[in-house]
Structure formats: C-alpha cells, structure tokens
Amino acid sequence: MTQETTQNLAGRIVLVTGASRGLGRGVAIAAAASGAHVVALARTVGALEELADEIDALPGGVTLVPLDITDDAGLQRMCLALHERWGRVDAWVHTAIYAAPLSPAAHVAVKELDKSIATNVRAAQRLVTMVEPLLKASDSGHAILADDPAAGTAYHGGYGASKAAQRALWQSWQAETQKLGPKVTLHVPAPMATAVRARFHPGENRDVLADVRAEGEKLVALL
What we know:
globular; 47% helix; Rossmann fold; 6-stranded parallel beta sheet; alpha/beta
C-alpha cells in the first residue's frame, strides 16, 4: 500500500465478524493497515491472538472479541461495550459463516440445517438489530456482507438455503436504509483459497484462486 492509502481509515472503528480466518482475517489486516481500529470477532482465541500479533505492526489497532455469533447475550455485551467506548461503529464487515457439508437436498442432516440457519440467518439478523444503532451514530456508517452465489447450485442445499435467506435479509435492510442510512452493501469476492472452499471443492488447484489478503484489500477499499 502507498503512504497515501495507509491512513485513509485512521480513527475509524471497523467491526469484522468472522475475523480469525479467511476473508475476515484479510479484511481485518487491510483495515488495520489503513489505520482503522479493528474490532475482531471470532470463536477461536488462538487465531485471534495470532491476528493481533500481526496487527501490532500496522498503523491501526485491534480489540479482540472471542465470541460465537449465535450468543445473543454476548453480542449485546459487545455492542454495549462499543457504545460505551466509542459511541459508534463506522463500518461492519460480516464474513462469519457456517458451511454445512455438501449433500443432496434430500439428505441434508437436520443438525446441519439447524446450525446453518442459526448461524447464517438468525445470528445475522440479531447482529443487524444490534449493530445498526452503532452504524447510525457514525457520520459514514457502512455495513458489508460477504455474499456467495453458491445458493441454488447442486449439493449446496443446506448451506445455499441459509445464504439465500441471509441475502434476502440484507437486501431488505439495504432497501430500507437507502435514504437515512447506514449504507448497506452485498459484496461477492473472487473464489479464494480458504478452508471453506477446500471443503466444497476438494482437489481443486488452489494456485489459481485469489489471495484472501488481496480480496480483503478490495473489500476495505469499498469503505
């Protein structure tokens, strides 16, 4: 990054849900490199600590939130803490996802379907409810959902159905906030060399896939 771009988010508060791996990690690093203070939420403490070690060398800062997004009470505590510390969130990038194993639509396991809905739909809606007031308190509140066009393709029934419902939720939110904000964006990144994609496409040549850091920088550029 050039010196001109390294500080374009200086002083901004960027919440990244799903920050410990994949695109979320790439976004967190890119935002911190641009001077933002990143609120990094993920379940895995060790991966969050590794992220913090990397961000320590960047212009921005980081606050770690080890939390499962299906924990309503935990999300409420986090949003209250953000309000008390900063009074706002300038950007929210949502990359957290539960990727159910691929299977024919007629054979989706009930527990996998339930977990997909709980994480990808219900938790996403609860986050919209809780984060929206913080985004509205910013002079430039912007929420970005990492979308996936896999919904409706063969063997993606459980995962795809939950992502389609999530997309519908965000599209409704997007339509509702056009005049008064916050800005809501659905973003489809290029196919990346992530663990989720490896599960869905075993044996794929990963050398031709996009780098998560490069995709993270592209997404942060939208902010």
